[in-house]
Design brief:
The protein is mainly α and 78 residues long. Helices cover 44% and strands 0% of the residues. It is built from 3 helices and no strands. The longest helix has 15 residues.
Length: 78
């Protein structure tokens, strides 16, 4: 894993779909799980979604918290 990819999770927005504009790091687990079942897109977006899925699936989202800008909170979907 490239450590720079962790920072990209916090800087890259979802370019389409229901969560368009949402940071990859803030996408809900069920949405990431859907991609895992149906297939991740090709390219960098797919690689970032797959990485975020692994972090979410293994309860490691908290690893991103120290990398977030000060005062920036994680967006939580319900």
């Amino acid at each position: 894993m490239n450590p720079d990819h962790l920072q990209l999770l916090l800087n890259t927005e979802m370019p389409y779909g229901k969560y368009k504009g949402c940071l990859i790091a803030d996408l809900p687990g069920h949405y990431l799980g859907w991609f895992a079942r149906e297939g991740f897109p090709k390219g960098q977006l797919g690689a970032l979604l797959a990485l975020m899925y692994e972090l979410d699936h293994n309860a490691l989202r908290g690893l991103l918290d120290p990398l977030r800008p000060k005062g920036a909170a994680r967006k939580v979907f319900r």
